[in-house]
Amino acid sequence: MRVSEVKLSVIVHEGEDYNKIKEKVLDLLEGIDKEKVDIIENRGEGIVSSNLIYISVKIKKKEHIHTFFRNLIKRGLDIDRFLDEMNFDEDYNIYVRLDKSYLLEKDKVFPLYGDDVFHLKISIDGYGKDKEKVRDFFERYLKEVSNL
């Protein structure tokens, strides 16, 4: 198995500091050539807010994915909590939410189930995947990356 793609996304709501949130996205990409990842911004309207900006980043290169997770670990990622907060879709992609305000105010990563968050989608390639195999693989992966 391998991590084939990571997608990070966040919604900037009206009244939030766009520059601060965009800067935090770029901080999480520290050490990654920004021209080698897809950074996309879309503007739209929501139910409550009339002005939203959706920022998403796709990371596909192996070394960039490693760097991204090292950046999360450097910001205090608790691997056990991360694993506890993981959700899966039918293809066993991993979904985790990171507390937006905690990351913006303390520069620390805190996985939680909430609404105002940075969203992570982690795609895992491999044969014979199931929830337990993907979870075990990803736990080993995070521990390995933290030791690099």
UniProtKB/TrEMBL annotation:
Pfam families: RNA_binding. InterPro entries: PAB1135-like, Ribosomal_uL5_dom_sf. Transmembrane segments: none annotated. The lineage of its organism: Archaea, Nanobdellota, Candidatus Nanoclepta. This is Exosome protein. It comes from Candidatus Nanoclepta minutus.
